[in-house]
Amino acid sequence: MADLKFKFTKKKNMSSIIEIVRHDLSENRNEQLQKSTQHFFREGVKCYGIKSTTVGSIGKEHFKTIKGLPKAEIFGLCDELWKSGYIEESIIACDWSYNLNKTFEPSDFKIFEEWIDGSVNNWASCDTFCNHTVGKFIEMYPRYLTELKRWTQSQNRWMRRASAVSLIIPGRQGKFLKDILEIAGLLLLDQDDMVRKGYGWMLKVASNKHQKDIFDYVFANKALMPRTALRYAIEKMPAELKSKAMER
Predict the structure, then answer these.
(1) What pTM did the predictor assign?
(2) Which pLDDT score, from 0 to 100, does residue 41 have?
(3) CB–CB of 169/135 below 8 Å?
(4) Which of 40, 92, 200, 225 gives the lowest tally of CB atoms within 10 Å of its CB?
(5) Strand-pair partners of 86
């Protein structure tokens, strides 16, 4: 880590904290990795070119210093990181917000929604944030499932993908089957490939605990379901069920 970190105290202002984080990220920049990262995204992305383990270490190290700050101040730091558009900064913002999950309260949902709608610009940031921070929030406050369903009608592709991938971890645990099927139905004919993959993934993880329910849903909708979503949904099923689902 940079020597700058040793000058940090909790009295430092927001811009100083962000400056230190960005300094450490810049120190670890790798131009070759920066170029190769672009191959994982159809849309252009901003990145330093840093391994995920290194990004995680930088975020973890600096969270030790800020963890005693009020939640609102830490969310303010996350907001600054999100605004940069850099994947690595967004991942640190995701980690910091998730670290506060024991203090989540209903009013936080609006903040999370604004980050997705205004700052998420790639699948990696979307999935990291929604799998963990939003997913945990939904487990704590399941009445907000109605808001995820509202997201399915958004003009923003990442909001629509978020409506599904926020249920990846709860779905893997067998939770919210009814809502998962409802969200899949709302996204069924979505024209965006990122959204199709998102809800297909949601169905796939739900099949771990509810294989028959997910298979029945896929089979009943296979004539309409895009093949991308269908293939994702049945990926973990036995071969005979896969063949039956794929029949024209």
Answers:
(1) 0.91
(2) 80
(3) yes
(4) 40
(5) 46
